[in-house]
Each structure stands twice: as C-alpha cells, then as structure tokens.
Write a structure and sequence with these properties.
Layout: E1 16-19, E2 37-42, H1 49-65, E3 68-73, H2 80-87, E4 95-100, H3 103-109, E5 122-131, E6 134-138, H4 146-154, E7 159-164, H5 170-180, E8 183-188, H6 192-201, E9 208-210, H7 212-220, E10 224-229, E11 255-262, H8 267-281, H9 284-291, E12 296-300, H10 302-322
Parallel strand pairs: 2-3, 2-4, 7-8
Antiparallel strand pairs: 1-4, 4-11, 5-11, 5-12, 6-9, 6-10
Helix pairs in contact: 1-8
Length: 324
C-alpha cells in the first residue's frame, strides 16, 4: 500500500497480539500445539471499533489454530499498558495483540510520552482491515463540499474550529491542512471519538475528522454531513462520498488494523498467524461485518505491514515534534 504525503493509518488497530498461556503446553511441540490457549491483548476499551474487529477475529483464529483465544482489554494510559504487555510477552505465540496506526506509532514517538517499546519491540503477523477517516460537518453547516470548507481559509482567511480527542488527531488534521490550505484552530475535547461527535452535534466546532463507525449514527439520522474521506478508497459505509484524491487533493490516509507479537518470535509462529489471518479476511461473513463498521477487509502480510509501519514513523515524527 502506497502512503502519500501526510498519509497515516488512523483509528485503526494495527497489531493484535494474542498472548497464549503455556499452562499445559508442550515445549517440544511447534506452534500452535505448544500452547494451551492464546491471550489477545486489546490496548483499547471494550466496545470500540478496534475491540469489535478483534472480537470478530478471535473466534475465527480459534477455529483455524485449534486453540482457545481469550480477548483482554488493556486501555490504561491511553493504550500504552496494552502495548507494553504485548511487547514484553513471551515470543512463543501465546500472546497476540491489537496495535493500531497511528495510535501505536504516536504512543512512543510523541515527545511527551515515556515508554519502553518502539517498532522493533514487535513482530507483525498480518493486518486485516483498513479505513479512511471522514471529514464531517454538522448538517446545519453552510459547507456543502470540501472545496467550500477550504475556501473559507484560502479565500476568506478564516480558521475553522476542529475538535481533537487525542494526539493521533494531529496526523490527519495536519494532512488535511497541508493538502487543502484550510486553517484549523484545534479545540481539545475529552472522550476520544465520542467527545468529538458530541462537540459537533452541539455546534461547538465547525468540523471533525473521525472514523466511519464513530459518525455512522449521526450521518444516518441526518445530523451530520460527510464532505470526503481521506482514505485511498471510498468507504463501504458511504460509497457516494468521494476521496480527497478524487477531489484533486494530494492526500490519502489509510488506517490499518493489524496484529503482532513480541519481537523475536519463531518464523513458524509468524507464518501460522499470518496464514490464519489471511483466511479470516477471505471469510465473507467477516467481510460483511467489518464493512458494516465502515472498514474494508484488506490483508497485509507481515512484510507489507512492517513497511507500512516504518513509513508511518517517517510521516508522524516531524508532525509530533513540531506540535510538542
């Protein structure tokens, strides 16, 4: 997947690392026969889009690997606790975890954070979904198109208020500014995506950039209008909404939801997970379920996933350093 300038992987889980306990396992056997169960660590709270995707994957992994998968949420410290647990787990395949871009990247590149892991602490085992965040306004807004929004700054000189719920929001926000010329005045809100949605519903901001699943209900009810998706392709949830590239802007950001294990895993562990996840993505029921969340079922093998992660770092670091 080619990521262009300011392209980032937003909302989504990048790695799902499952941590399998070895109780009852035989160290002389190969994975997955050497573990009695697997623990899947989710660095987010239950009920969100990352958690939902992981819980769609977990039972399918159980079926394909022939061992139980226990999903555990570790959202403490903005997800850093979960990522640390994944990175410090045994590299025997007993632990797998959900690691999202850009949150996984910003969690250790943000100069304001202090963690004991980085990209080299994980071995990618495959990604399962992608999505592009949406540029959304209140339906009562005068902005009918992304061009209208941009013209407010490029022609009128006005900065628009945009809600932000986490440091991750800096990446798509900066990408939209650079590509369109719009100027944003960043307004922080607590509560992540739900906080941004509440702010826009109350007309406390002019615009938000959010995952399709976060705004689906408000768009369906007629409260919100979607101007564009910053993804490289149109979202299955809103197929009539154009991409920023289609509108002539040099911007394509894809959020990748993937899985990974602690660095140093044997090739048989990586290969087994990768093969199983590729089969999961080919499952029509899985495809239908994730499309209902606004995601596209799209498999990346470990090498492609690793390349995407490295490119994310190149994009994110200067943005985070400049905004520290």
């Amino acid at each position: 997947m080619k990521l262009r300038r300011a392209a980032v992987l937003a909302a989504i889980p990048l790695f799902a690392i499952s941590c399998a306990t070895t109780t009852g396992g035989n160290s002389g056997e190969s994975f997955p026969d050497n573990v009695s169960s697997i623990r899947m660590i989710i660095p987010f709270s239950a009920g969100g889009s990352t958690d939902t995707v992981a819980r769609l994957v977990a039972p399918r992994l159980e079926e394909k690997l022939g061992t139980s998968v226990q999903v555990l949420n570790r959202p403490e410290r903005g997800g850093q606790a979960g990522l640390e647990e994944i990175a410090s787990a045994p590299a025997d395949g007993s632990v797998i975890g959900s690691v999202n871009f850009p949150s996984a990247v910003t969690s250790y590149l943000d100069p304001a954070t202090d963690v004991d892991y980085d990209r080299t602490s994980f071995d990618p085992v495959g990604a399962v979904t992608t999505f592009g965040s949406l540029i959304v306004v209140n339906s009562a807004s005068p902005y009918q198109t992304l061009g209208d929004l941009a013209a407010t700054s490029t022609q009128g000189g006005k900065a628009l208020n945009i809600a932000a719920g986490a440091v991750d929001d800096l990446l798509p926000l900066t990408g939209v500014q650079d590509a369109t010329g719009v100027k944003f005045n960043l307004i922080p809100f607590e509560g992540g995506s739900s906080g941004k949605v509440t702010a826009l519903l109350g007309n406390k901001v002019d615009v938000i950039i959010a995952a399709p699943s976060a705004v689906l209900a408000s768009v369906t009810s007629g409260d919100f209008r979607v101007l564009a998706t910053i993804g490289s392709e149109r979202t299955p949830t809103f197929p009539d909404v154009p991409t920023t590239s289609e509108l002539g802007y040099d911007l394509a950001q894809d959020t990748i939801n993937g899985f990974g294990v602690a660095a140093g895993a044997p090739s048989q562990v990586i290969d087994a997970y990768s093969a199983a996840l590729e089969e999961v993505v080919a499952d029509p029921e899985f495809v239908k379920a994730v499309e209902g969340l606004g995601f596209a079922a799209s498999f990346l093998d470990p090498e492609q996933q690793s390349d995407a992660w490295a490119e994310q770092e190149e994009i994110a670091k200067p943005i985070l350093d400049a905004n520290n």
